[in-house]
Design brief:
Layout (H helix, E strand, L loop, with lengths): L7 E3 L1 H22 L5 E6 L6 E4 L5 E3 L1 H6 L7 E6 L2 H11 L5 E5 L2 H9 L9 E7 L8 H10 L2 E7 L1 H7 L10 H11 L4 H5 L19 H14 L9 E4 L5 E8 L3 H14 L6
Parallel strand pairs: 1-3, 2-5, 2-7, 5-6, 7-8
Antiparallel strand pairs: 3-4, 8-10, 9-10
Length: 279
Amino acid sequence: MENFPGVTTIGYWSEIKLQILKEYALKYSVILSKQSTLEHVYIDAFAGAGLHISRETEGFVLGSPLNALYVEPPFKELHLIDLDGQKINLLTELTEKFNNVHIYEGNSNEILLNEVLPKVRYEDYRRGLCLLDPYGLHLDWRVLETATAMKSIEVFLNFPIMDMNRNVLWRDYEAVSPKGIDRMNAFWGNESWKQTAYSEPVQRGLFGDNPLQKESNYAIASGFQERLKSTGFKFVPDPIPMRNTAGATIYYLFFASNNETGTKIAKHILEKYRTKGKK
């Protein structure tokens, strides 16, 4: 869109994701606003421009930052991060009238760890709803470790299985670039994804006539679900697949929390949309 630099076109599966997030953000804000001793904030780590074009209707669709901004009762603060300068420029323009919006341009992982998450400490009576929606394998596991240790953060997470399959999870593991492996290690937090993704241990130099058998997408997502639980999140419901028009799973949408009430609400919303992506 030449007249709207930074605006991206999204498929119906992304519109479903946005609806899920919108519904949960509303319920989250209603509940937290009733707690007079608490302040609740919204965090969007790969926020985009705040506006999209629907591939289905060709009309404008509000992105997750604007959906959260217009929630009533409102969030105390919104912290919006993106690396793309064009997206940041439009997001700034769309939110400039609101004094509770804080926008950051740069590496989402470092900004989250160093600037944003420290503002949402449990002991300061602050709580946060955080969307981690990377464009691919761009998330650092340290963010998830920090979020669960804080006990104040609830997370929606895009698990980018299509990007993983395209760049890392090959049967010919020897052909995968070191950069791709490093990105996968950073996202997963260690190298245990190899045991999860393949039916036998990955060892370099042993694959000549015996290529590895890759596990199913859902098996890999289930392995990551266990990783989230192992790092400290008490509640990690089964993720839901987001599929394209061909029925292929592009990513899984996860919810992770230490709050039982929030988890019950999230599970209800996720189940409502579990099969919506099928066509």
